[in-house]
Amino acid sequence: MATLRAIERRHEERVRAVFRAHDVDSSQKLNRHELRAALLDLGVKVGEAELKRLLRRVDDDGSGDLDCAEFGKLFALGRLQAVFREVDESGNGLIDEVELREALRKVGGVNAKELMRRVDIDRSGKIDFEEFVDAFEFVPRATLHAARQSFDDAIPHIHGLEAWQTVVTGGLAGVASRTVVAPLERVKLAAQVSTDPAKFSSWRELRRVARVEGSRGLFAGNVLNCARVFPTAAITCTLYNQLVGVAPINRDEIDAAEPAWRMACASVAALVANVLTYPGDVLRARLTVLQGTSSTPARIVATSLANPRGLFRGLAPTLLSVVPFVAIQNATVDFCKHAADVYDVEVTPALLVAAGTTAGLAAQSVVHPLDVVRRRAQVRGTAEMSWWTALRTLPLSSLYAGIGTTYVKAVPMCATFAFVAGTLASHFKRTNDERPPREAES
Questions:
Q1: Which of 129, 246, 322, 421 shows its CA 20 to 30 Å from the CA of 375?
Q2: Which residues contact 439 (CB under 8 A, 6 or more apart)?
Q3: Average pLDDT, the chain
Q4: Considering Cα of 362, then 366, then 369, then 371, what sign does the dihedral take?
């Protein structure tokens, strides 16, 4: 490791180089516009109030402009040394992962393993002061919170969203996508539980429902479906983001293990979300298909609640069908976004929709038979045979009943989800980027 004096000299040279690069009028001063440009180039995003606060701290003559010495005070190495000592609880001049995790626990926001991987350049398992300076020397008026925020901003997050924002984004996107295709979902359910799938016509069923039940009939069960989809999509989206944040995924490049890690994270997220919300899906399926029979909605609900175990009928094939579908679709879209970021390719809505739709169609082809089996188990309420026996013995025409409607449904559903989720995510990300730091500097 270089000596402290060598580190100081190098830091001073870097500060002067930044100052000269942004002193565009060669006035030996940085005005407010030049200062903001300098900070942005250093990866520091500040609002107007924060910029004024920084100026008050270092503008000794009150001119509103900063000379090189005043500019250097923004990045005083002494303050960074104080932060380093705060994290280095052992006082041995090295920060290990345990100390880093404990420090981050106070301010939150960054994964200790990820920070250690990026800052520990020599891969020694410890961060020395030289490495610490290289990572955080351009944090204005350095504090532990400011250093954490600076590093957090530098990590290319999947969505750059807070937990509540992923809940809203995933939930609303799920609701919008399912509402758009609710009439097709109604027809698909009828096809899947039909006693004679060979003679079933999706178009004829769609016209029958519209004629007999009216336009409201086309959306029968959609309110309950949305009540189930919102928490399912919200949990899946939020948990997936959290899991990806701690997975050993290289943020700077693409490696062979990344698709597997993303699919594993999406699988766990989908599994947890669907187990928690499965009873609502059973009720929705029964209300949708059995509406108009001798059973009233109230009686269907009462009968279902009287047999709680029946609300989990078909759970095994559900998990085997839904989890791979969500894993393939979510992981594919996210992998495309990360690859585009690494290779500096513009991520357009059309690209995301195409990637999601292709992945969705491929996944649906594989899992559709299991989807048919679970719908039969859900709607009939009693098992004529186990789902595994049904899967092996039902004819192919039954196992793929409704697959055409499913394919037609997948395109607008995926497109709507991608559009709504992308729009909300961009809005929240933009809001987060413009938000001033939450904790004032001491």
A1: 421
A2: 107, 143, 145
A3: 78
A4: negative
CA distance 208 to 12: 78
Diameter over CA atoms, the chain: 87
Distance spanning both ends of the chain, measured CA to CA: 30
Tell me the sheet residues that pair with 127: 95
Q: How many CB atoms lie within 10 A of CB 411?
A: 15
List the helix and strand counts (H, then E) for the chain. 20, 0
- 49 burial type by CB count under 10 A (0-12 exposed, 13-18 middle, 19+ buried): exposed
Gap between the Cα atoms of 98 and 390, Å rounded:
52
Comparing 9-13, 73-77, 164-168, 215-219, which segment has the lowest mean pLDDT?
215-219
The structural domain count of the chain equals 3
* 17-29: pLDDT as tens digits: 999 999 988 899 9
Whether residue 275 is predicted with pLDDT greater than 60 in this model: the reply is yes
Which CATH number do you get for residue 90? 1.10.238.10
The letter for the amino acid at 290 is: L
- Between helix 258-290 and helix 222-246 the angle, nearest 10°, is 170
Q: Is residue 442 part of a domain?
A: no
Same-domain status, 90 and 55: no
Q: Rounded to an integer, what distance in angstroms lies between the CA atom of residue 55 and that of residue 80?
A: 19
From 29, 49, 73, give the residue that closes a domain. Answer: 73
Helix, strand, or coil (residue 355) = helix
User: Quick one: which H or E segment has residue 45?
Assistant: none
CB 338, CB 258: distance < 8 Å? yes
Task: Convert the pLDDT of each residue in 392-437 to its tens digit.
Answer: 666 766 777 767 767 777 778 877 887 788 788 878 877 765 554 4
Q: In this structure, is the dihedral angle defined by the CA atoms of residues 152, 155, 160 and 164, taken in order, positive or negative?
A: negative
DSSP for 72-140 reads HHTT-HHHHHHHHHHH-TT-SS-B-HHHHHHHHHHH--S-HHHHHHHH-TT-SSSB-HHHHHHHHTTST
- What type of residue sits at position 128? D
Query: pTM of this prediction?
Result: 0.53
Give the residue numbers spanning the domain of 340.
163-434
> Residue 30 phi/psi, 5° resolution?
-110, 120
